[in-house]
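step: validate -> pass
step: tokenize input -> pass
step: predict -> running
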Amino acid sequence: METTENIINNIKYFADDYLKNNNGELNFLGKLLKILLIVITIKIIISLTNKLIDRTLKHRKGMNFFVNNRRATTIGEVLKKIVKYILYFIGIVMILDMFNINTTSILATAGIGGLAIGFGAQSLVKDIITGFFILFEDQYAVGDYVKIESLEGTVEELGLRVTKLRDFSGDLHIIPNGRVQVVTNKTRGAMRALVKVSIAYEENIDDAIRVLEKVCKEIKSSNDNILDGPTILGVTDLGDFDVSISIVAKTKPMEQWAVEREIRKKVKEAFDRENIEIPYPKRVIFGGKEQ
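step: predict -> pass
step: emit ->
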């Protein structure tokens, strides 16, 4: 017991001698240590809060509100940012108070001038409000593949102010939420795979369709990403030098391109085996002279 009291007394003497001035107030070193303590405390609280949010969302992902893991992840990231901003704001106010800066008057002035500032920050407010609607209406979430205006890619981050898209080339597009008006989400529900197969006019259409039917059955039995089909729609176009036969299938989200590539590969291999010609542009010249 005495040892504990001695330690406390030593800390008190150290604080009085080195961290306070003659008036009993914190000196410059004392204020620096207090600022450091505030920052460390905020970091710890943020870390604990983030873990609590992750744990809470993990247990609630099966509820109706959290339709899928992507939405839960997006909500978690937004909540973490809100908590971080609030704690940083509280820390700044505490630090200002420590330097005898009247934060009450600053907040009052901010409230009075908020209307004037608001006219200059209309776009910011619009971005934040739109961000809330995007989140709670579940228009898209982190990991979804979407098209916004002329930009498309995978949603890498959905914040209160901006949405970040990563396209196939690796470019990161940062879009203010206020500009998001029409969104095409390509990861919700079954997607369509469409392949147009061309054969020469000289080939028998019925024979070509029979070969394609065998290919479709083979692909359907071996590819788990196909939900329905592939189905042959029949002749869908008569070109200048080819007859087009369309094949359509429903696939899992983001798998339509892989299914289309597989269909084209299998069709090419089957046509080669059956000697069915895939046409190419030809030019016939009449009236030439024999040498």
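step: describe -> The CA atoms of residues 115 and 121 lie 10 Å apart.
step: cleanup -> pass
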